[in-house]
Amino acid sequence: MTQYAAPGQPGSVVAYRARYDHFIGGDYVSPVTGEYVENVTPVTGDVFTEVARGTDADRARAMHAASGAARAWGNTTPRERATVLCEIADRIEEHATELAVAETWDNGKPVREALVADVPMLIELFRQYAAVVRAEVGEVEQLGRSTFDYRSFQPIGVVHERISWTFPLMNACRVLAPALAAGNAVVLEPALQTPASIHVLLGVIADLMPPGVVNVVTGSDDHPLVAGRCPNIFFSDVTARRDGFLDKALEGFAMFAANQGESSTAPSRALIQTAVYEEFLHLATVRTEELRSGDPLDTDTMVGAVVSLAQRDRVLAYVERGKAEGARLVTGGEASGHFVQPTIFEGDHRSGVFADDLLGPVVSVTRFDDLDDAVKIANESVAQLGAGIWCRDVTLAHNAGQDLHAERVWVNNYSPYPANTAVLAEYRRVKHLLVSYSDRG
């Protein structure tokens, strides 16, 4: 066990400023209105810093700074940009513990998750996109005997993105890494609930980039979130043996509580085949009750604090609604401060606690009879961003995965997904240079 000191306490690896202005054009600048917002850590419920309140005027200043920097950055070679991205990755690796603690203090997630998942993913993002753009070459197509189409990639210019509070640093870097690799300047707006960790990241990497290439405007609360009701399907053969596979499946069930369930791909609906329903639900309940809640800065803690009291109240209202609808509360359902117990409901898959969106440590459990029944129930969700399948029969698992509507299907695992380099296409355009070498019309 490692117990990290809280920011502001002796021995802490993170030191926050008392106040953060907007980061525009390579410098911190005061908000146009002079207004600031208190930033509360969900770990203790205390105010630990304040950030500038962003307005349209501040966004305009940031966009202007980014526009001025975009041309020069976009004219650098892919090799030059790849070098900077690798330097960013190295710097993040050097400050991994500091960034993990900063993310925990801002978001409430267990520091163990930030250390083993979030921060390593940041490093991987920058290194992977650096490798892609460094290795890419353009294309040439011969259109005629003396006419050629030279195709190359160009940046779109300025990327402006709002960053949700669910994974503050990871979501920010999922924009930064491909956008910078493509040659764009960036304006980020972190969510009002979690604006501070991005400033810690800036303190680590800002000097590696020209002024204005990365800008941050804080204090905006207009951040729409998508909470997918992702199904996690457990076929009857998972309990065929008491072995490592069963243990892995139970761990997959408990993933609903990872990051306090504050993820658009959290497996918040569990479908268990009728033949083993009671047996597997019992084992899954035991595994859930073994999840250790507590101080997020303790590496033994598995479930941390939800991001805000407003989100806690939303989760608790959802629990009360489930009870009112007749769903059985198997375990959990209580809260203290920002901390909500991992909660299991069971009941009819057509009820509200199965259909509605939620970003919290709650899973709704139902049963299914066969493959067709499982697919039918799973596909009732319209916001199915991900799904899990647990089955020893790989043919059955393959067929189930093909029929699910989910964009991403995990089979016998439920893990964070790696960088998707296809995202680069969103941050650049293809330039066609059509050249005729003929001296005739």
UniProtKB/TrEMBL annotation:
Entry keyword Oxidoreductase: yes
Any GO MF annotation of the entry: oxidoreductase activity, acting on the aldehyde or oxo group of donors, NAD or NADP as acceptor
Boundaries of every Aldehyde dehydrogenase domain copy: 33-221, 246-420
InterPro entries in UniProt: Ald_DH/histidinol_DH (IPR016161), Ald_DH_C (IPR016163), Ald_DH_N (IPR016162), Aldehyde_DH_dom (IPR015590)
Keywords for this protein: Oxidoreductase
Signal peptide: none
Superkingdom to which the source organism belongs: Bacteria
Record-linked SUPFAM superfamilies: ALDH-like
Keyword Zinc: no
Family assignment from sequence similarity: Belongs to the aldehyde dehydrogenase family.
Protein name: Aldehyde dehydrogenase
Originating organism: Lentzea albidocapillata
